[in-house]
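User: Could you walk me through two proteins back to back? I'd like the raw sequence and the structure tokens for each, with a short line separating them so I can tell where one ends and the next begins.

Assistant: Of course. Protein one, sequence then structure:
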Amino acid sequence: MNLYPIIAGNFMLDGGAMFGVVPKSIWQKTNPSDSNNMVKIAARCLLIEDRDNLILIDVGMGNKQSEKFFSYYHCWGEESLESSLKKYGFETSDVTDVFLTHLHFDHCGGGVIRSGENTFETTFKNAKYWSNESHWDWATSPNKRESASFLKENINPIMESGQLNFLKKDPNSYLTSTPLGFEILFVDGHTEKQMIPLINYKGQKIAFGADLIPTAGHIPLPYIPGYDIRPLVSLKEKELFLNFCHKNDVFLFFEHDANIELATLQKNEKGVRLEKTLMLGDL
């Protein structure tokens, strides 16, 4: 097995929204903002090469939206989903599976491209797309709080393509096994039934943090984004997850941290905290 970090474009978000009730004087120590209170956010996906399978976890926001849409997110950097794949010798046609942690636009938008002025098609023609039925139903009939994050042009073409597959939660276990060769954790604080992958790589367990732990700055329990629909649920889920990771020597892979790719954890009197940072290439 080989793992590759895939940068699917980077953007910026309001720091206050990213850290909820935590004051700026505290969160800016780990995630400094610009003069407009915007913090740098990565769209760092994960590519798993496992024998004949090439599995991509999340796909960034893509590039099919309007200029007005992108003006809200201040995209930065030169890397894209396609250029990152090519860096490691792959094309979109090589991907066998696209695993979507959830269907917010910055996680699934790159999975669909524009084929005409008002028509769309899937980016990965030979891949199965993986979600779960509870989250899919949640995203296709969105509440008003999340409706701006669930875009029909990112979601409907996947169903229409016939490439969509659903995973089911194991009700009797903290983790759920999948046919993709890794386990997943279902969490409901950020959005309904977000899926967090845990991969065994060279004997080391790695958790893809997605929006449960979007950046290293979000490791302390109260550091919960204002985007989360159930922040108190997020608080409980984070505590269980971080304690599980510390107890089982699980490394954290950060999807949204602009600077830190991977980290180990330690525990002190304040709880679970970052220990040291490293890269996948260090393993």
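----
Protein two, same layout:
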Amino acid sequence: MKIGIVGLPNVGKSTLFNSITKAGAECANYPFCTIEPNVGVVAVPDERLTNLAKMYDSDKVTPAVVEFVDIAGLVKGASKGEGLGNKFLSHIRETDAILEVVRCFDDSNIVHVDGSIDPIRDIETINIELELADMDTVNKRIDRAAKLAKGGDKKYLAEEDAFKKIRKVLEEGKPARQADLTDEEKEMTKDAFLLTSKPILYVANISENDIGKDDNEYVKKVKEYAKNDNAEVISLCAKIEEELSELDGDDKNEMLEALGITESGLDKVIKASYDLLGLMSFLTAGKKETRAWTIKKGTKAPQAAGKIHSDFERGFIKAEIVSYDDLIKNGSYQKTKELGLVRMEGKDYVMQDGDIVDFKFNV
């Protein structure tokens, strides 16, 4: 799963991406991996893995991961191919969600591309370009569906109606994700890969002086704007996050304490991004390895088993499950089992975040 980081020049986007790549590089359990010059894979912070690894004396710990793509080149007119517009838009199409960085601090030494600080203007500059690009795509799909529907195929009539719903929303200056589509309509339009259909997370880049304080006026405006899109806003100082990403263990904790915060903004972003994609983790634990496995929320047990190996799904019999909270509370697997908290689940069981699983299968 990929998260595309977007933002205008000099808003802190590249600094945040540097923090992500450094955090990945420092992660002993899942080293940062450069797939391309502007792509970074980073571990999802999960203290459950640390606790389970201690309990099982695991030789190896493997966390869940999220892939971030640093997307550059946005200027006004990107939807018309200005600057690196076409490349910029194609990179976003390849991502599953958007992380939009906006500058929420004043600093005369850092020149803003538009000459002043206005996070809402910055957000709208980007969002309008995405909406214009989507409008072009939607109009083409409506024309195509209308031509094919002349043959009387109800499938294309339904597709035309669905895209017209999306066009109406775009004409109102809203993202495609706010269109009121049925599940069937969502399915028939998903191959358009609309940019504004992707879920979005806003990152308000604040100054060092604002860390641990109430939201400044810029951040308040961003949060108010995001409410209309049911989007989350995370405040952080990209400059400080870059410094934190170079620290580990006690040194990092000391700096967090000095800043008066309990968790880095970057960790919050990674967790929120994981959740934004509708993902969760089930866990496996043992002497050989403790590991988090990424699945979509709502996944059933056989499909979860298939994440480990296709044979597990094909020959699925049942899943022996204990919740992480129950296991930690009781101190051992044996005691938890004696209390009747280890259960056997079948093919219709919907996995829950933090389930610790031993799949039973026969191939």
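The radius of gyration is 23 Å.

Let me know if you want the two compared in more detail.
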